[in-house]
Amino acid sequence: MTTTVERFETALEDLEVPVRRTTPAAFDETLGRVANEPVVGTPLPFEGVSLPAWVDDEPTPGALESATTGVTAASLGVADYGSVVLPSTPEGSEPVSLFPERHVAVLRERDLVADMPTAIERLGPELRDGGSAVIATGPSATADMGALVKGAHGPKEVRVVLITDAEDADGGEP
Amino acid sequence: MSTDTRERKAERIRHLLETEGEAVEENTLGFNEGRYESVADLEEYEALKDRAREIKEDAIERLPELIEQLRETVEENGGTLYLADDAADANRYIREVAGENDADRVVKSKSMTSEELEVNEALEADGVDVVETDLGEWVLQVADEAPSHIVAPAIHKSEAEIAELFNEQFDPDEPLETAEELTMFARERLGELIADADVGMTGANFITADSGSIMLVTSEGNARKTAVVPDTHVAVAGVEKVVPSVEDLAPFIELIGRSGTGQDITSYVSLLTPPVDSPVVDFDDPDLEFADRDDDREFHLVLIDNGRMAMREDEHLRETLYCIRCSACANTCANFQSVGGHAFGGETYSGGIATGWEAGVHGQDSAAEFNDLCTGCSRCVEACPVKIDIPWINTVVRDRINREDGGQFDFLVEGLTPDEEPGGVDLQKRLFGNYETLAKLGSATAPVSNWTTKLGPVRTLMEKTVGVDRRRPLPAFERTTLVDWFEDRGPRVSAADADREVVLYPDVYTNYIDVERGKAAVRVLEALSVHVRIPSAPGSGRAPLSQGMIDTADEKASRVYASLAEHIDAGRDVVVIEPSDLAMFRSEYEKFLPESSYERLREGSYEILEYVYGLLENGADADRLRTGDGERAPDIAYHSHCQQRTLELDRYTRAVLEDLEYDVLESDVECCGMAGSFGYKEQYYELSMDVGDRLADQFTTPETSDRLVVASGTSCEDQLEDLLAREAVHPVEVLDPRSRHH
């Protein structure tokens, strides 16, 4: 039987979105492999994980324009679809995940859910509390110009960093 | 409809087939194929559709209450809700918002509702620069054209045409050529326009009453930018977009992309609860940290009535409000696949469901422009994620249009046509709607009736008066009807010796024209030890219904039931050869008969190959039929009938043929294009042939070109014979112990 993580990884593979599993300890190094500088990011609300110093974590409109990579936290992952749920924050997670050419979503393995109904159930209270989020699946795309093109208004490329729950989990290599 | 009107209509369709047909066909076929693949992966597809339908039914039922709840939540969140009576009211409000914000520019993401309002024109009249940021919409804005599809508005344009347009309009340093170059050019240019915008306007796919959130289904990311970059967000949406709660969104998220463009999910499903927490992106202040901003965002939700509350009270149009605008009914429609929304659409909306929308929001005249393009093939019914009976809406609106000029006495046909319709019904519709009368007359006077209809001057007259296209061969009537033949011949298996008893329904076409397939059906049933009876029974009402003559169809339903009821009571099975007639019994009769009568006929009636399948499964001896393993057995190219497929009955024909060891290749087009009388009509003949070409292509490949052409529907047989100049026969004519195809 395939695990939720495996299903998530398969779905991401179909979307041509590379995913890397890492531990909190190896996070900086893993991020370094998937982020092209200059990098802008918003704070990660995960205990024991924070953005490395080489990430500009105080985004401005100017930083959005010059950054190649934007790093933001995902509050949920949906295994069936390879989707990540990106909550809006006053620090600018929405524009940071949208303007730069590459978006890196950072997701904890424990926040991975199997299917869409479960994800929406989790989101219900957040939205009723005034929150906003985007369920993002793969890169921005359009076929309006006569053929499929990635990077229409949003990121051309997406990467997912999946933080394992325990230090000794499989796939802890950066 | 006068001959001039028909010719103008034919001319318009011809023009679109030539200029836009190719791009529309390629794109819609791609979406449609994607839909089949994507929904096949969804384990709970049927259950999800049921759930989606339930949610919409409940939401529309409780709409006034939900709107009030939504008003409260939006206001609590710090936004405003404006309920606009009509387009003018909505536009006035939106212009005020723009005015109060001294807006020089409004950027928009794609919204069909905003097209319905024509809000761009309203704002532009005030000197506001309105920019469409969806790439397809922007192409159309630059080209000054209307959308041809509700989801992919510029599908009628090819890459090369867009490149030519941009190169001419913008004169870039290096001429643009590829989709990639065009997209990047648009991204950059639109990015600058968004950065300077004062107001962002979006639509909303759904709105949740419990949280005041709007859901936006997009792929490009422009809606995300439109909603958060400027400090003022206006969302426009029809009142029908409101659902009770966030949790209700789940089935729609899973269905909308799959049903529409065949994507499991689109890149972005935004769930915004405005005014949002995201910072305003002010590129004029590039160094101010987002976290340090103190934005005072403005949000206006403009809900539009514009006829919808009246649709809610209209028992037939109400279902339209369940529509989630996914475009499945357009992509799956054979006629739409050929001409697109510029022909198959009204002032704003296009595709199958557009008749409901146009009749509801713009009025019947707008629906009348294109309503005839729905042939009732029913392929959209299973594609619709909220299970709307789209053909029925089209039929009801057609009936209403027929009655518009009611009272006008039509001296030419009134005496000839024993229908239940008022005098105003179009002469052409009346002719085809009363085909049964014509067939009776034609049969009684055959072969003379067949000679005259082959005469040039007669065809010219028919084209001029009733618009029967002279290029289309007319079916020849048989002097001896199936009922007469059987009465003389009698049954060959007595009731006492039979395993089962069948009443074979003599549909109009089989009885008067293709008597051979009726005889073959009798022989096939008798070979399987069935006692057959063929009662005299009226037409099912399919012909009048297809012309929007509902009362006539209703009357036929009662008479058919009266002629079959005693047989059903006696435990006899009703077997039907023509799928479109069986579809009447199984589907439309629900609207015409008392519930218990409908149920009994539905449960007691079978498509002929469905019945043969059942007999064989229950031990009937297959060797008494002609099988596919004989030396001279034909290989088969099979085209099932559109309505047969919607009823999921095509599988029985396939199973029987394969079980009897025939080599079968099956077409996978949605419809043959003939669709009863549609392909005979002067104004639609060329469209019908264009649709048919997709089928013809599949039956002229090296693998299929020397196969026997087999089709379950009469009009499919006629269409295939016209397209291929090869004989086409019903499956029972292959299985017939006396088959001449072996």
Description:
The complex is a heterodimer of chains A (174) and B (742). Chain A has 174 residues and is of the alpha/beta class. Chain A has a single domain, classed as NagB/RpiA/CoA transferase-like (Rossmann fold), CATH 3.40.50. Chain A is 25% helix and 26% strand. The longest helix of chain A has 13 residues. The C terminus of chain A is likely disordered. Chain B has 742 residues and is an alpha/beta fold. Chain B is built from 37 helices and 18 strands. In chain B, the strands form 4 sheets. In chain B, strands 1-10-7-4-2-3 form a 6-stranded parallel β-sheet, with helices on both faces. A 4-stranded mixed β-sheet of chain B has the order 8-5-6-9, sandwiched between helices. In chain B, helix 32 packs across helix 34 and helix 35 packs across helix 36. The radius of gyration of chain B is 28 Å and the shape is elongated. The two termini of chain B are 47 Å apart. At the A-B interface, helix 3, helix 4, helix 5, strand 9 and strand 10 of A face helix 8, helix 9, helix 10, helix 11 and helix 12 of B. Strand 9 of chain A pairs antiparallel with strand 9 of chain B, so a sheet runs across the interface.
Chain-wise SSE layout:
The complex is a heterodimer of chains A (174) and B (742).
Chain A: H1 4-14, E1 19-22, H2 27-34, E2 39-41, E3 55-56, H3 61-66, E4 69-73, E5 76-78, E6 83-87, H4 93-98, E7 102-108, E8 112-113, H5 116-128, E9 133-136, E10 141-142, E11 149-150, E12 157-163
Parallel strand pairs in A: 1-12, 2-3, 2-4, 4-7, 5-8, 7-12
Antiparallel strand pairs in A: 5-6, 6-9, 10-11
Chain B: H1 3-19, H2 21-40, H3 45-61, H4 63-77, E1 80-84, H5 87-100, E2 105-108, H6 112-117, H7 119-125, E3 129-132, H8 135-143, H9 159-170, H10 179-195, E4 199-202, E5 206-208, E6 213-218, H11 222-228, E7 232-238, E8 242-243, H12 249-260, E9 268-272, E10 298-304, H13 308-313, H14 328-331, H15 334-339, H16 354-362, H17 364-368, H18 379-383, H19 390-404, H20 411-414, H21 427-433, H22 435-444, H23 448-454, H24 456-466, H25 482-489, E11 500-505, H26 508-512, H27 515-527, E12 530-533, H28 542-546, H29 550-569, E13 573-576, H30 579-592, H31 595-604, E14 605-607, H32 608-617, E15 636-639, H33 642-646, H34 650-659, E16 664-666, H35 685-698, E17 708-711, H36 714-724, E18 728-729, H37 731-735
Parallel strand pairs in B: 1-10, 2-3, 2-4, 4-7, 5-8, 7-10, 11-12, 11-13, 13-14, 15-16, 15-17, 17-18
Antiparallel strand pairs in B: 5-6, 6-9
